[in-house]
Amino acid sequence: MATSDSPTRPEAALLALRPAIAGQPAAIPTPGTVADFQQQVLRPVLKLQHAVLLATVADFARDYRLPLATAAPTEATRLLTELLARNARLRATLAGLAVGLLTAPELAFYRQHRPELTRRLLGLAEQRVLSSVPELLTYLPT
Predict the structure, then answer these.
(1) Is 48:18 a contact under the CB 8 Å cutoff?
(2) What is the rounded distance in angstroms from the CA atom of residue 58 to the CA atom of residue 134?
(3) Any idea what DSSP says for residue 60?
(4) What is the mean pLDDT of the chain?
């Protein structure tokens, strides 16, 4: 628990790190709906964490000896989809990569709606990984 003498999170710095997403309206201080939270918080955080997300998935693929480097594109997509769907440790790691960059009010909202927001967060992460397979392959050892 935070006490009055404990250091506070750098809320403004966390928000300043987030990249803008084209076509998205300006963020409101604390989104009021799950859909708004997904668009205004989760998408920018995942965009910020793009390289870390790909490197993490590549590490798990390597640990499970998935032949992504030699697989056909459709087979690589299938292997990654299965890994992302079935590996609970990977799913928890990906959620943690995003949740760790939430501000205190965002974290409070996330905790209230955790099951739904985690489902949405993992869906967004999966889309990001599957649309970046060539880039993900660069994180695998040669």
Answers:
(1) yes
(2) 11
(3) H
(4) 88
In a domain, 18, yes or no: no
Residue span of the structural domain in which 133 resides: 32-137
Give yes or no for a contact between 113 and 121, defined as CB atoms under 8 angstroms apart: no
Distance, in Å, from the CA atom of 81 to the CA atom of 8, rounded to the nearest integer, reads 38
Structure tokens at 41: 């918080």
- CA 6 to chain CA centroid, Å, is 28
Q: Which residues of 12-48 are buried (b: 16+ CB within 10 A; e: fewer)?
A: eebeeebeeeeeeeebeeebeebeebbbbbbbbbbeb
Report yes or no on 71 lying in a domain: yes
Q: Is 139 helix (H, G, I), strand (E, B) or coil?
A: coil
In a domain, 73, yes or no: yes
Residues 53-107 have pLDDT tens digits of 999 999 999 999 999 999 999 999 999 999 999 999 999 999 999 999 998 889 9
In a domain, 126, yes or no: yes
The arithmetic mean of pLDDT across residues 11-27, rounded, is 73
* Mean pLDDT on 49-53: 96
> Per-residue pLDDT for 5 more than 50?
no
Question: Which of 41, 42, 43, 18 has the alpha carbon at shortest distance from 30?
Answer: 41
